[in-house]
Recover the amino acids of this structure.
């Protein structure tokens, strides 16, 4: 590890908060702009200066900073994507990269930072704040809704509604032709999006990484359910399902049941875009204001969460290391109704 005079030794007395940075990192999610707006305006209302850090940790390393005034965040509440852009930075994973990032923050006189992203982004913030004297507060922004300690992450509700709208359309054509569609949704390690959208769309089977019992349900549907009803079928597949994604599963089903008309639809990046739902805008706004309040309160290394609609503070090390429990009972409900 690099040793220099800036490196943290004990816990020095913090200087008064005057200027904060805000950035988005990792995968983008609809509602990130609403969070940037809330952070910027809440900070300005509290007489703080605000700097936008562009392109995640890579922009931090390169000093890609822009001052943010109230007007700069006008007209973004309803837009998807992130006005600050986002990135994944391999350089930030190195001690040398983090030292550059810290020097840039220091040069810009940034006292504390709001990071909007997922578990990787919070891990990066935790590592930097352990090495150097800089505070971070996190806002969960990921369509996966997979962070421990919060009921919602920004973007999940919009992505869920995007999936439901798309699957409703697929269902129309599936019914017309009597086809079975394997619909793959995002979620490398988390199946919540597939599970919830599957319930909302009345899917016949839902395949998620958190449960491997569903493959026998799929066999039951193919052998009995589909033939009995002589209808169509929607099989929701989380991309991280252990059987290997919709294409692979569908290929195997075609081999085993050559008489069935099997199709695949991978929803892909449309799930990340679009105007955020009212729920995502409200949650992002509440969390953005709470993040500034937490920094003013001298909090650090915590993620702002929502628990039963109330703001909670979750330590970064818990948010990134523990799993978000998924309501597996929803699978039972889905089975019960699929008669
Ligand atoms: P998503 O859930 O959408 O993938 P994320 O925040 O988890 O979002 P990651 O790509 O995992 O996205 O992390 C974003 C960035 O955080 C990485 O590109 C890297 O710069 C930084 N980061 C992640 N893990 C670490 C780590 N262990 N040490 C230092 N930096 C890290």
């Amino acid at each position: 590890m690099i040793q220099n005079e800036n490196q943290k030794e004990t816990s020095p007395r913090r200087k008064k908060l005057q200027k904060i940075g805000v950035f988005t990192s990792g995968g983008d999610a609809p509602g990130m702009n609403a969070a940037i707006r809330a952070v910027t305006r809440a900070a300005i209302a509290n007489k703080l200066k605000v700097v936008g850090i562009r392109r995640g940790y890579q922009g931090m390393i390169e000093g890609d900073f822009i001052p943010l005034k109230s007007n700069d965040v006008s007209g973004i509440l309803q837009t998807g994507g992130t006005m600050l852009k986002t990135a994944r930075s391999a350089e930030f994973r190195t001690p040398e990269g983090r030292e550059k990032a810290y020097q840039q923050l220091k040069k810009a006189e940034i006292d504390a930072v709001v990071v909007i992203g997922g578990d990787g982004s919070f891990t990066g913030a935790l590592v930097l704040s352990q090495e150097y004297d800089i505070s971070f507060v996190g806002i969960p922004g990921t369509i996966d809704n997979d962070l421990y300690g919060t009921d919602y992450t920004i973007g999940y509700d919009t992505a869920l509604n995007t999936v439901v709208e798309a699957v409703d359309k697929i269902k129309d054509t599936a019914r017309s032709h009597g086809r079975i569609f394997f619909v793959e949704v995002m979620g490398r390690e988390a199946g919540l999006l597939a599970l919830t959208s599957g319930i909302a769309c009345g899917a016949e089977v839902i395949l998620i990484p958190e449960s491997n019992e569903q493959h026998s349900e799929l066999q039951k549907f193919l052998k009995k359910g589909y033939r009995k009803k002589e209808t169509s079928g929607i099989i929701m597949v989380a991309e991280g399902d252990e059987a290997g994604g919709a294409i692979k599963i569908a290929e195997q089903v075609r081999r085993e049941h050559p008489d069935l008309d099997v199709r695949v639809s991978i929803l892909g990046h449309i799930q990340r875009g679009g105007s955020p739902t009212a729920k995502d805008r409200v949650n992002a706004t509440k969390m953005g204001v709470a993040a500034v309040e937490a920094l003013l309160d001298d909090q650090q290394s915590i993620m702002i969460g929502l628990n039963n609609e109330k703001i909670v503070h979750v330590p970064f090390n818990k948010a990134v290391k523990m799993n978000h429990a998924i309501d597996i009972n929803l699978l039972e409900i889905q089975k019960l109704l699929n008669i």
Remarks:
- The first helix runs from residue 32 to 45.
- Residues 156-272 form a domain with the Rossmann fold fold (CATH 3.40.50.460).
